[in-house]
Every structure is written in C-alpha cells, then in structure tokens.
Amino acid sequence: MGRPQASQEFIDMLNEALSEEMASIFQYMWDHILARGMESPPIAEKFKELAMTEMRHAYMLAERIDLLGGTPTTKVGEIRVGGDLRQMLEDNLELEYEAIAMYRRLIKQAEREDDPATRRLLEDILKDTEEHARDLESILGK
Ligand SMILES: [Fe+2]
Ligand SMILES: [Fe+2]
Fold it and tell me: Which CATH number fits domain 8-69+81-139: 3.30.450.20, 1.20.1250.20, 2.60.40.10, 1.20.1260.10?
C-alpha cells in the first residue's frame, strides 16, 4: 500500500474544483484592480486578500490531484468581473455559494473513496469558503 487510489470520477471532480478556484483567483484579483478607484478601498483590499486564499486553495488541490495520480487541469472556469461594487460583491458571493455546494459534494465523494486525508483537505477549504461567503454577506448587509 503506497499512494492512495482515487477513481477517475473523483479526480475529475477535484479538477472541476481546481478550475473554479482558478476562476475565483482572477475574479477577485481583477475586481480588486477595478474596485481600487471606487468608494470603498477596504473592499478592494478584501478582494485582494481573498484572491490570495483562492490561490492557496488552487495550489492545495493541484498538489493533491498530482499525488492521487491525476493531472491538474489548466482549464479556468467562468469568470464574471466588473460592474459596480455591489455587482462585484454579488457575483463573488454567488461563486462562493457554488463552491460551498461543490465542496460538500466532494467531501461525500472522499468518504466513498475512503480517503480521509483528501477529505480533511477539502474540509479545510470548505471552512475558508464558508468564511468568504460570510464576509461578503456581511459587507452586503445580508
Ligand atoms: Fe477557494
Ligand atoms: Fe473563496
């Protein structure tokens, strides 16, 4: 028993998550740049901080996919940038909600795959993702 075995389905799901993380890196980074001149510098700074967390998530996933014998994708998911600040916040919140649903599915799959280490990694990313959603909700006054 050496490396953990992963099904192709699981690798594909992890690569979908990687695509989404890469999309969120650009979405937050470009929104950071576009929002800098707007009314709220702290929100622009927040976008930058979030972009960096998304990069860490992308790195963690790519490393894990490689360890499981897969090839990390270079495909970037759909990106929605720009508009006014409220639009940016709504678009980013939408992406975080999609990510929460995705990581919950991935955690269930990790259980089926009997892969506790990947499961823990996914739970750590889910925890950050829930915090991102809560941060955006509170900025939006939700
Ligand atoms: Fe993320
Ligand atoms: Fe996030």
Answer: 1.20.1260.10
